[in-house]
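User: Design a sequence. Structure:
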């Protein structure tokens, strides 16, 4: 490829990306894989990371993160933002259940930082990994991204898992490359 072709291709790609935008000011919609379906299995090698019990806080440079209150349900409902009297219901479906975990993240410094995104978290049962599904409740879903000093973001992450899964079996794995290096942690009923 000659220089002119390369520059033309680069300019077209940049122009195409310029039209893309996120649905929220933070850049994270709070959604991840639709349906929260499992996508891979863990290796036999243990994955490193700080071991925490639900309710305990992971203190990172500039950010603190807490996962708490894991619970299962066959359905959940929410109220529309524009029409509070109107409710919607999300059914898990036959043989499945929703497993929701509350997430709280806080910017602990005096400048803008990025709070973890939903894609930095995975649910794990045994060796099977589940991605957070689309939490359809706009009032309740966690939304990460860049935030000003002192900002706290709270919400729930929703995983679609088999109905046989219990909260005792379910762990949440956090993994992210932060400016201070790769950070990992595990939350479970037993730390």
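Assistant: Done.
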């Amino acid at each position: 490829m000659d220089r002119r072709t390369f520059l033309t291709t680069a300019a077209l790609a940049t122009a195409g990306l310029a039209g893309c935008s996120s649905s929220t000011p933070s850049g994270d919609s709070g959604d991840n894989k639709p349906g929260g379906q499992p996508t891979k299995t863990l290796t036999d090698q243990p994955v490193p990371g700080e071991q925490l019990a639900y309710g305990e806080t992971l203190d990172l440079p500039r950010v603190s993160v807490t996962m708490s209150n894991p619970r299962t349900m066959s359905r959940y409902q929410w109220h529309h933002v524009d029409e509070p009297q109107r409710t919607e219901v999300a059914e898990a479906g036959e043989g499945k259940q929703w497993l929701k975990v509350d997430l709280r993240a806080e910017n602990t410094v005096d400048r803008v930082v990025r709070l973890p995104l939903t894609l930095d978290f995975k649910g794990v049962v045994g060796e099977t990994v589940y991605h957070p599904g689309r939490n359809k409740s706009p009032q309740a879903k966690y939304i990460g991204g860049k935030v000003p000093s002192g900002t706290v973001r709270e919400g729930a992450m929703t995983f679609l898992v088999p109905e046989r899964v219990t909260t005792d079996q379910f762990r949440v794995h956090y993994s992210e490359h932060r400016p201070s290096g790769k950070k990992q942690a595990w939350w479970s009923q037993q730390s």
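The chain has a mean pLDDT of 78. The helical segments are 3-18.
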